[in-house]
Amino acid sequence: MAKYIVEQSGPLRGEVTISGSKNAVLPILAATVLSEGVCEINDVPHLLDVEVMIQILRSLGADVSEDWDSHTVVVTPGQSTVSEVPHDLVKKMRASIFVMGPLLARTGSAVIALPGGCSIGNRPIDLHNKGLRLLGARILTGDGIVEASAPNGLRGSLVYLDFPSVGATENIMMAATLAQGTTTIENAAEEPEIVDLANFLNKMGARIKGAGTDTIRIEGVQHLHGTRHAVIPDRIETGTFMVAAAISRGDVLIKNSVPDHVRPVIAKLLECGAVVNDEVDGLRVRGDVKDLVATDIKTLPYPGFPTDMQALFMALLTTVDGTSAVIETVFENRFMHAAELSRMGANIRVDGRTAIVPGNKHQLVGARVISTDLRAGAALVLAGLVAKGRTEVSEIYHIERGYEGFHDKLSALGAKIERVED
Ligand code: EPZ
User: Fold this and answer.
1) Which of 29, 53, 114, 166 to mutate for ligand 1's pocket (most ligand atoms within 8 Å of CB)?
2) Are 239 and 212 part of one and the same domain?
3) Residues 75-99: what's their mean pLDDT?
4) Cβ(273)–Cβ(302) under 8 Å?
């Protein structure tokens, strides 16, 4: 198992270029199952999760070529599409569930191992199933398998989502593209990744309106053809490097970022006293202008403060003047990093969905810590940059699932970080 060795580093300085969005490219790759023609996807981040999704597409009969120098993936549909996703691949990545809607729409059936929970919550798929059932699918779950079938095809329907689930919105939207009639998704998720997926589907010939709002209307069509699409930049990687600049009291230019996708992160960094400038070449974030101070965070579905930025921001808040409150409303168990940060001297108190984060009275001290999920791991690395001495972050496969070249990008900014095999 590999781990990161992080030494206390000075202020990060220089520029970093953001990769394509993990949470946009995974549903977009799944959506190629709907296409009868060749799809070329550009700006694909080279991540473990993307490799797994490519293996899934190959197991379903597609021919997939990858060129990581140009970050391009080309998906050519096979003669026939298999409807069953191998269990060992689903176990590797929850996002495999994104192929359920496309498979159902394209072949009339989908057999997928139930994606397990993970450390941040039990991650149910009841809203995915509710929407697909309303489109006419029969869905059986048992023995850790979900079997969906729609032998007579899918029919458009009104679908109200009890929670604006990103994955459920994406699965239902993809399935509805080939349904007979019109589907309306109410209380839909509004994340930029939903808009990117809808843009991709519309370029394939789908008829989707309202993506990015809480009401999405999909008029079903008979066929979807191939197309070419460049994935949006990763807004959570953008936020991660914005926090890296602030926590290290540095000055970093973040290129290939979309300011509109990180408005809540910009707002909270400004509240802390960081300086954020939208420059021609990207977002410049400075944490070296004045002393940083506490602020409160409450995670919400987009356009609220993103849950995926909660751990990163908590790490920053352990180093500022004053005490902050962090409230996590999206996942039921997303504070594991608090215990790890406390082992570095942060002294965070967790009570249900609220964490109280004392400020820099507790100068962080390096320790051996464990990465419990993708964003928690990244937060521990950032904390290690400013902690006294050496921090060892283990279980870093979580981090490498979702950040392309993470330690190389940090090293290029002056971070003292090394990747070693345990
Ligand atoms: C997506 O997960 C992202 N993953 C997550 O990013 C992100 O944290 C999450 O959206 C919220 O923004 C990908 O896009 C691959 P949800 P998803 O369905 O779709 C509950 C990362 O770090 N829920 O919006 O699984 C669920 O339990 C990852 O990149 C149901 O109750 O998130 C959770 O409490 C982590 N029933 C809440 O909704 C359902 O059927 C939000 O889940 C579905 C979800």
Assistant:
1) 166
2) no
3) 87
4) no
Backbone dihedral angles phi then psi of residue 215, each to the nearest 5 degrees: -130, 115
Based on the structure, what is the number of domains in the chain?
2
pLDDT given at position 117: 61
For ligand 1, atom 25, the nearest C-alpha belongs to 167
Q: Which residue has the tokens 């504070």?
A: 335
CA of 330 from ligand 1 middle (Å) equals 8
As annotated, the active-site residues are 118
Ligand 1, atom 31, lies closest to the CA of: 124
What single DSSP character describes residue 405?
A: T
From 230, 256, 287, the end of a domain falls on: 230
Whether residue 238 is found in the same domain as residue 186: no
Q: C-alpha 388: how far from its chain's center?
A: 30
What is the CATH number for 323?
3.65.10.10
Atom of ligand 1 nearest to the CA of 123: 27
Nearest CA to ligand 1 atom 41: 165
User: In ligand 1, which atom is closest to the CA atom of 122?
Assistant: 27
Whole-number Å distance, alpha carbon 93 to ligand 1 midpoint, is: 13
- Residue 348 lies in domain: 2-18+233-421
Phi, psi of 224 (to 5 degrees): -120, 135
Closest CA to 246 of 274, 279, 270: 274
Residue 22 CA to ligand 1 centre (angstroms)? 13
Q: What is the per-residue pLDDT across 123-168, written as a single tens digit (0 to 9) for each?
A: 889 999 999 999 999 999 888 889 999 989 999 999 999 999 999 9
pLDDT per position as a tens digit, 315-373: 999 999 999 999 999 999 999 999 999 999 999 999 999 999 998 755 899 999 999 99
Whole-number average pLDDT of the chain: 95
